[in-house]
Design brief:
The protein has three helices and eight strands, in the order E-E-E-E-H-E-E-E-H-E-H. By secondary structure, it is α/β, with parallel strands linked by helices. The strands form two sheets. A five-stranded mixed β-sheet has the order 4-1-6-5-8, sandwiched between helices. A three-stranded antiparallel β-sheet has the order 3-2-7, with no helix packed on it. The radius of gyration is 15 Å and the shape is globular. The mean pLDDT is about 90.
């Protein structure tokens, strides 16, 4: 079992757009999600994190992915969901804002591997995808330096 576990959710609206969250810590877009709490069920974690980060109440349709990151000993569970209610957060504790994006027009600055996870789902909608994700330490370092620079410029 991984030392840390997280739940991430792809949320579609009726127009087929995907909900992304602009993070406060770095100026990048991400799918809503976060860490699993002790004794919490995966689906409950996904629902809780989505509401905390977006303001929307969601219902989980199904699990669509499992992504293990060996360099962090981290397991990420990816879910598919739809909005049931709520209203978008303008400016939250972790969230600078939320926005709906067409799947083929995602923003340039996203958390590494998210675009890949979304694209895999769009091409293979009926499959539960399992993959080990590794990003080179050099890429991570350069990405963090770039984001730190962007944060200072803003």
């Amino acid at each position: 079992m991984a030392s840390s576990t997280g739940c991430i959710t792809i949320i579609f609206n009726r127009e087929g757009k995907i909900l992304l969250v602009k993070r406060k810590d770095y100026p990048v877009w991400d799918l809503p999600g976060g860490r699993l709490e002790e004794n919490e069920k995966l689906e409950v974690c996904a629902i809780r994190e989505a509401e905390e980060e977006t303001g929307y109440l969601i219902s989980i349709e199904r699990k669509i992915g499992e992504y293990f990151q060996p360099q962090y000993d981290d397991m990420q569970h990816l879910f598919l969901a739809e909005v049931e209610g709520g209203k978008p957060i303008e400016n939250g504790d972790e969230t600078e804002g939320v926005q709906w994006f067409p799947p083929r027009s995602l923003p340039l600055l996203m958390i590494p591997n998210r675009r890949r996870q979304i694209q895999y789902f769009l091409k293979n909608k009926e499959k539960l995808h399992k993959e080990s994700l590794t990003v080179s330490p050099l890429k991570i370092y350069l990405y963090k330096q770039f984001l730190t620079l962007l944060k200072k410029i803003r």
